[in-house]
Amino acid sequence: MNGTKIGSGDKVLDWVAFIAALILFAKTADLLSYFSPAILSDILGFDVSLIYGSICAALVEGLALALHFNRRATLSSTAQVVKWILIAISGVCQVFDGFITTDSVAQMSDTMKAGLSYGVPLIPLLIMVMVFGIGQLPEVDVAQGSHKKPFIGLKGMWNHLINGGNGPAPAYQLPPQIDLELPPSASKSNNHKKDEVVNPTMGEER
Question: To 10 degrees, the CA torsion angle through 17, 64, 84, 167?
Fold first, then answer.
């Protein structure tokens, strides 16, 4: 396994995933903006529905991208399941937003209406539960030239998309050497034994 690769390892495929996430982000944010808590607008004194929807959509698409570009997440089956659940949530949001923007909510089935009324507002909670469910991501062998950071960050993700599938391999650092220093009493004992080996008759002459 090459620890220097992130994402799919291919620049074109990773750009496709990144652009698709941006496209999905717009409709996901539009849908979630309808469920913005009214108390936030009352406290801040202005409509925060777009801000609320954008933040929630960033959690959905952003976390999916983070798990895609994270080396350690590829080793966690739970993280991969969470990534595909997030993609499914984003797909459901696209469908629900299409009904709302075309004023076709009345044509939705009772199950879809229940999902729109109760499921969509719980998306932030579902994300929190799934992140907690992932737990600690598995470590990757440092000798393979991989990072141990949980996420590469926006800067690292952008540099990866610009530079290509192979990220720079960090220099491998040797583990710190342990200085096994003997106590003074043990050192004197060893020196005395060395003298006896060099001059075995020294004790008899004395």
Answer: 60
